[in-house]
Amino acid sequence: MARKTKEEAQATRELLLDTAEQLFSTHGVSHTSLNDIARAASLTRGAVYWHFDNKADLLKGLWERVALPLQQGLEAVDREQASNPRARIVQKACWMADHIGADAHMLAIMNILMLRCEFTAETEGARAHFREVREECLAGMTDEFRTAIAQQQLPPTLDAERSALGLFGLVDGLCFHWLIDRERFCIQACTRAAVEAYLSGLECTR
Hints:
The chain has helices at residues 2-27, 34-40, 45-51, 55-80, 85-99, 104-115, 124-150, 160-180, 187-203. The mean pLDDT is 93. By secondary structure, the protein is mainly α. Helix 1 (2-27) crosses helix 6 (104-115). The chain has nine helices and no strands.
């Protein structure tokens, strides 16, 4: 019986996440209340609070659904390109673009965070969480640049952290514009070409 209860609780949690994902994507985070989510899911407001403290908690839950595939994808890059830091930089920078079209949850959370979310006092907890996640990702990419510099794949005069930050800005910008108009260009091809051009430009500073 306990196992069934646990499974039912997990099913309710997933239903709430699916509903929040749909409403946030359609109406935006600030224009969606917990009552809206409960009503759309045919649940009580109390059921929402049983699983999530507030909208910030829901946003973090939506991110957690894509965090594991993302982590596994980056770990696969580490294994496949163990001796080639430049290749790891390219593949890690392009991973999100390569998979965003095939993963509905990933597409939804990126659309919500970039186009449908205003970080206010109500969602400050989520903003702090995403800032921490981003800092971890930036630190990891900075380490990749340092390794590429140490192995003479990139010029020794490069600032690894600034180079990583510039790469993040490039990829974020492409993702943002693609989300606005997904028919305008191929996110996978454009991201890979832009990342290669960015690294080629850095290499010219030797």
